[in-house]
Write a structure and sequence with these properties.
The protein is an alpha+beta fold. It contains six helices and five strands; from the N terminus they run H-E-E-H-H-E-H-H-E-E-H. The longest helix has 19 residues.
Length: 172
């Protein structure tokens, strides 16, 4: 049985603890970042937002991931220096998305930019096999991978229906 998200965070297991970060312009910064929450780093230009998020947290997570690869694979990867930090605890996998807009499509999401949209579709199409039910207009829906593929009639129907509904709302 899983714990509710609130209990998980409050139990002390749901934080990323940073102690003594000194990457770039950070000066011995220590903080605790809650997991399971939307967290934003804000501040004036040069205050260390990118140094903390990308150069410290993401860089350390990448290094930890690379340490799990075999030595054979690691020999082909450029070695990186560890960020200057005394301790990082509770850090999991990270995904960094560039701030620049690489795709002019207004429907692009983090999933489409990072390339995991297909995997998410596959995951959701397998939910019924895992015993996860889905109610659609009072009936149990049986999903498959076609429902999450924009190039199939099943996957395109929801998109077309949503666009039509949005168009009718703007005309009223």
């Amino acid at each position: 049985m899983s714990e509710p998200a609130e209990d998980f965070v409050d139990a002390g297991y749901g934080t990323i603890d940073v102690v003594g970060a000194r990457t770039n312009n950070l000066r011995n910064v220590s903080l605790s970042i809650p997991k399971g929450r939307l967290v934003a780093f804000t501040g004036v230009s040069g205050s260390g937002k990118t140094s903390l998020a990308v150069d410290t947290l993401h860089s350390e997570a990448q290094l930890r991931y690379l340490e799990g690869l075999s030595p054979f694979v690691r020999q082909y990867i450029t070695q990186r220096n560890r960020p200057k930090v005394d301790r990082l605890r509770g850090l999991g996998a990270t995904l960094a998305v560039d701030q620049r807009r690489t795709n002019r499509n207004p429907r692009s999401t983090v999933a489409t930019i990072s390339g995991i949209d297909g995997y998410l579709g596959l995951l959701f199409s397998r939910l019924p096999a895992l015993g996860v039910g889905l109610e659609v207009r009072g009936t149990a829906a049986h999903l498959n991978s076609a429902h999450f593929d924009r190039k199939t009639p099943e996957g395109a129907v929801a998109t077309a229906t949503a666009r039509a509904a949005a168009g009718s709302r703007t005309r009223n």
